[in-house]
């Protein structure tokens, strides 16, 4: 089998597994790349087809609806094959349409029977011949954004209520773009300029980040394969997420609790900012994820981190009251801020998931209250843009804990361009502001 057919068949397998089992796209892709031993070029194409097809599912279905008579009776793999083929025809220009259609027909023959391959051929050729209708012509605003920018209608409606039409549309548009890889430079070992120079020697091109002073943005090449990464000079992390350790306002020698720490990006950043002093207790509910924190700390030569398995709702049983100068609750959330990186989230989540997760968020935040020393700071953060998980959770916590208030000095610790989005002790970044993940940070201080 030629490599192009191999890539498309692998893409079909991955998309089917994601749709059926709500499996994580990034993990499945990595497994598939290893299993098929794909070259770098084929890996790039596979990733683009899988993410692109999932990302634009609503738009592709809208296009296909004109050409399918009995969609409900079709097997799911046939729909997935049509979606990924049409995605390439509409959005990729490297491969001629005739080659895409030919490969789709071959896959259909192999997996199904002659009737299916004939139907696949007919549908794809009809899209060429008759053309595709324009989703921008849909009159209802929410429906138009949902179809043209490919997000679930219920989510678009919620965002319009919370953020208005303009922000919702801009954000949905941003979510369709391929994400950058960004990394945080371990400034205890190196500097941004030095790391950029060192990476270039290994064939990786990077530039300084646009938001965080210790960030780099990778333009070309694989950072994880470099000696620079292996020896602990940098950590893969989104720039918005790099603001969290800054928000804590860490001072030398402090005791810090990271209540939901895996995979360890923020814990290691805190330890780097402690610069060989102080102590970080990093907790996670899952033992296999705690291993990831330990592995990160080891690679970065950070000895201040003590990672352990613990449900952060039960921290009171493990630690004494008033034991920490700083506490970070980077709470589990719906993840609607990271749809560029994990497009499957938007199709897997339901509206009731928001209510379910806020119960957990409130319980975790509540459990930390007694552990903070008077005068200490507590940061609550999420990688979502959902008001119910962010502002509402913090508002309820403050109502029940008059000993806490917003830290009005938060903006002083953040980059200038971000500070303008700070309101009191809260920051909500939307993906289209700076091309980062959507992220929420609230800093509270205990009287």
Can you describe this structure?
The protein is α/β, with parallel strands linked by helices. Helices cover about 50% and strands about 15% of the residues. It has four domains: about 5-135, N-utilizing Substance Protein B Homolog, Chain A, CATH 1.10.940.10; about 135-175, no CATH class; about 180-235, 2-Layer Sandwich (Alpha-Beta Plaits); about 245-445, 3-Layer(aba) Sandwich (Rossmann fold), CATH 3.40.50.150. It is built from 21 helices and 13 strands. The strands form two sheets. Strands 5, 6, 7, 8, 9, 10, 11, 12 and 13 form a nine-stranded mixed β-sheet that branches.
Question: Helices and strands in order, then pairings?
Answer:
Layout: H1 3-21, H2 25-36, H3 40-55, H4 57-65, H5 76-91, H6 97-111, H7 114-130, H8 141-148, H9 153-163, H10 165-175, E1 181-185, H11 192-201, E2 205-208, E3 215-220, H12 227-230, E4 234-236, H13 243-247, E5 255-258, H14 265-274, E6 279-284, H15 287-299, E7 305-309, H16 315-318, E8 324-330, H17 344-348, H18 351-368, E9 372-382, H19 391-400, E10 404-406, H20 416-419, E11 422-423, E12 426-429, H21 431-434, E13 439-446
Parallel strand pairs: 5-6, 5-8, 6-7, 8-9
Antiparallel strand pairs: 1-3, 1-4, 2-3, 9-13, 10-13, 11-12, 12-13
Helix pairs in contact: 1-2, 1-3, 1-5, 1-6, 3-5, 4-5, 5-6, 5-7, 6-7, 8-9, 9-10, 18-19
């Amino acid at each position: 089998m030629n490599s192009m057919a191999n890539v498309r068949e692998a893409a079909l397998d991955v998309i089917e597994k994601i749709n059926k089992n709500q499996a994580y796209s990034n993990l499945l892709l990595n497994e598939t790349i290893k299993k098929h031993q794909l070259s770098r070029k084929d890996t790039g194409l596979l990733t683009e087809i899988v993410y692109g097809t999932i990302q634009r599912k609503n738009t592709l279905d809208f296009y296909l609806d004109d050409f399918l008579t009995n969609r409900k009776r079709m097997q799911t793999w046939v729909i997935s094959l049509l979606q990924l083929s049409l995605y390439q025809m509409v959005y990729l220009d490297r491969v001629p349409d005739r080659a895409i259609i030919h490969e789709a027909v071959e896959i259909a023959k192999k997996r199904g029977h002659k009737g299916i391959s004939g139907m696949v051929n007919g549908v794809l050729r009809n899209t060429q011949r008759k053309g595709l209708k324009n989703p921008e012509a849909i009159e209802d605003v929410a429906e138009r954004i949902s179809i043209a920018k490919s997000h679930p209608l219920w989510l678009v409606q919620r965002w319009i209520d919370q953020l208005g039409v303009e922000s919702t549309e801009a954000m949905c548009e941003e979510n369709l773009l391929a994400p950058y890889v960004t990394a945080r430079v371990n400034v205890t070992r190196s500097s941004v300029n030095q790391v950029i120079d060192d990476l270039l020697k290994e064939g990786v091109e990077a530039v300084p980040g646009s938001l965080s002073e210790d960030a780099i943005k990778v333009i070309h090449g694989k950072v994880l394969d470099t000696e620079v990464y292996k020896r602990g000079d940098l950590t893969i992390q989104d720039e918005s997420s790099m603001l969290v350790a800054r928000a804590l306002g860490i001072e030398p020698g402090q005791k810090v609790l990271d209540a939901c720490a895996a995979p360890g990006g923020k814990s290691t950043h805190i330890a780097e900012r402690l610069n060989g002093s102080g102590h970080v207790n990093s907790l996670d509910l899952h033992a296999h994820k705690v291993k990831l924190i330990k592995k990160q700390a080891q690679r970065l030569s950070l000895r201040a981190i003590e990672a352990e398995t613990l449900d952060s709702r039960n921290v009171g049983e493990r630690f004494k009251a008033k034991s920490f100068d700083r506490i970070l609750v980077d709470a589990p959330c719906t993840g609607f801020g990271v749809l560029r990186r994990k497009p499957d989230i938007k199709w897997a989540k339901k509206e009731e998931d928001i209510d379910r997760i806020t119960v957990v968020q409130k319980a975790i935040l509540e459990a930390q209250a007694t552990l903070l020393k008077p005068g200490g700071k507590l940061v609550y953060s999420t990688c979502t843009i959902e008001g119910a998980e962010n502002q509402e959770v913090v508002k309820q916590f403050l109502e029940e804990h008059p000993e806490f208030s917003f830290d009005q000095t938060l903006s002083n610790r953040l980059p200038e361009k971000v500070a303008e989005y700070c309101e009191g002790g809260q920051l909500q970044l939307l993906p289209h502001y700076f091309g980062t993940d959507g992220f929420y940070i609230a800093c509270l201080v205990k009287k």
